[in-house]
Amino acid sequence: MRKTLIIARRELAAYFVSPMAYVIGGLFLLASALWFFHSIFIPGRQASLRPLFEAMAYILTFALPLLTMRLVADEVHTGTVETLMTAPITEAHVIVGKFLGVMGFYLALLATTLVLLVLMAIYGQPDTGVVTMGYLGMVLVGALFVSVGLFASAMTSYQLVAAIVAAGICAAMVLLPQAVIATGLAPWDRLASRLSVMMYVKDTARGVFDTRGVIFFVTTSAVFLYLSIKTMESRRWR
Amino acid sequence: MPPTNGSPMIDVKNLTKWYGPVLAVDDISFHVDRGQIVGFLGPNGAGKSTTLRILTSFLPATGGKATVAGFDVLAESMEVRRRIGYMPESVPLYGEMRVREYLTYRAALREIPRRERRAAVDRVAQRCWLSEPEDMMRRRLDQLSRGYKQRVGLADVLLHNPPVLILDEPTIGLDPAQIRAMRDLITGLAAEHTVILSSHILAEVEQTCSHLIIIAGGRIVAAGTSGELRQRVIGPNRIITEMKGAEPNVLAADVGGLDSVGDVQVQRAGNWTRLMIAANDDSDPRSAIFQLAAKKDYTIRELRREVASLEDFFVQITYEQNTQTTDQSA
C-alpha cells in the first residue's frame, strides 16, 4: 500500500508539471463550459447539470485516453521502466499507484467544473442530491476510462497508439450498447442496456442511485486494472 | 539463503537467453566474489546488457540459473532487488522531476524509512558530487548534462547502500575528465560493494576492474585478472628485429638456431631483413640475438619486443564476432 501511494504521488505530481495535462484539462473545461452555456445556462431552463454530465461522458471518452496514454508506454519508451521494475516493487503497485495518480488529477479537473455549478446556483436552485449523484457518476465513468487507458498504455510503447486504442475501447463501450438498444431486438437490447455506460451515466445524471451501475463501473474498472497488471507483467516474457 | 563469507555474491550457471529466434546469451557461467570489481567486456551486441538485466531480475533467463547475494533472480526477485543497485545503460530519468525530488522518490521506493530519506539523499549527493553547485539538487533532470545525469543515476543506485552494484556502461557518453572521476568513484566503492560493470572499452575496464570477463557473441571468451588474461591470450613473447649482413635465410637460420628462439618468420624490408621471432615460453632472446649479431658482424637497426596488448586480442574477437554475424545474416 505504501509503495502504491509513492507511485501515485509521483504520478500526480508529474501531471501538475506537465504542459500536456494542462492542455487536455483546459480543453476538457472549455468543451464542458461551452456545452454548459449553450444548453443549460439559459433563462427559463431547469437548473440542472444533467445535460452537462451526459456531454462530459462523451468528452471524457477522448480526453481521458490523452491523459493516460503516457502512463506505462512512456516508461517503456524512455527506459525508466528498467529502474522502476528493478526496485523492490510489483506490477500491481505500479498499476494501482498510477491509477490513483491519474484519478487524483482527474478529480482536480472535475472539481474545477464546480465553478459552473456555483454560477448556476447564483441564478437558480440546483438540487444538491441530484448534483452529487451526477458527480459520483462522473467519478465512476472516469475510473473506468482511466483503467481502460492504463490497459492500452501497458500494451504498447507508443503513446499515440495507446491513446487511439483506449479511445476506441471507450467509444465502443459508450456507443455500441446504445446502437444495440436502438435496434430494439430482444433479448439483446436488454442485455445491452445492462452493459451500457451511457445508461448508467444518464441514471446518475438524473440523480438515480442504481447499485447495478456502481457494480458495473467498479467491476469493469477492476477487470481493466487486472488486465493492465497482467499485460505489464507479460513484458518480461515478450 | 544469505551468503556466508566464502560464497560468491553473484553466481551464474549455464545462463541462456533467447529473444525469439535470436540467441543473445549462450550458456555462460561465472561468479563474482564479495568486494570484487568485475568488468564485463564485449563488443556491442555481445550480450552484456542482457546478462546484467537477467541479474537484476528485470528479464527472465531462458535457461540456467543465477543468484545474487544468495537469492535466485527469478524465484526470489524481490530479495534480489533489495540488494542491488542497477544503473541501466541509458540512465533513464523522469525529466520533469528535480534532482532531490527524484532521489527522495527513489529512496522511498527502496524502502528507506521516511525519517532517513533526507540523510540518505544528502549522503549520495555528496558522494556523487551533486552538492555543487548549490542549486544542483533543485535542477530539473531533463536540463542536466549527460555527466550530471550519470551522477544522478549513480547516486540513485547508492541510496540504499546495496551490497551489489550492477552498472551498465557507466562511463559511456562522458568526457575524459568525467570518465576519470567516475572511475575513481567506482574504484572507491569496492570497499563496501561488489561491483559488476559492463563496457566495450577495454582500457577503461582494465583500469577499474580487478577481474575481467570478455564476452562476444553471447559466450564468455576469456575471464580472469587482466594479468592472467594477458598471459593467456597473448601467448609467448614476440621479438621483432631488422638486420643485415647476410642472406635472409642465413640470418633466419642463425637466429633460429638460438636456444630461446622458437619459430622465425622472414620478411624483406629493402636492404634489410625483418625477422619476426616467437620466443620459447617466457624467455626473452633479445640479448642472445644481439650477441649473435655482434659475433657474426651483422648490423642491427631494430630489436624490440612486441608488446601485444589485450587491446589487440579484444579487437580481434570483436572483429570475429562481426564477421560471424555478417555470415549469419548473409
From TrEMBL, chain A:
Keywords: Cell membrane, Membrane, Transmembrane, Transmembrane helix. One of its GO terms (molecular function) is ABC-type transporter activity. This is ABC-2 type transporter domain-containing protein. The chain crosses the membrane at residues 12-35, 55-73, 94-123, 135-153, 160-188, 208-229. InterPro entries: ABC-2_transporter_component. It is found in: Cell membrane. GO terms for cellular component: plasma membrane. It is a multi-pass membrane protein. Its main location: membrane.
Automatic annotation (TrEMBL), chain B:
InterPro entries: AAA+_ATPase, ABC_transporter-like_ATP-bd, P-loop_NTPase. Keywords: ATP-binding, Nucleotide-binding, Transport. It holds the Pfam family ABC_tran. GO terms for molecular function: ATP binding; ATP hydrolysis activity. CDD domains: ABC_DR_subfamily_A. Residues 10-242 form the ABC transporter domain. Belongs to the ABC transporter superfamily. This is ABC transporter domain-containing protein. It comes from marine sediment metagenome.
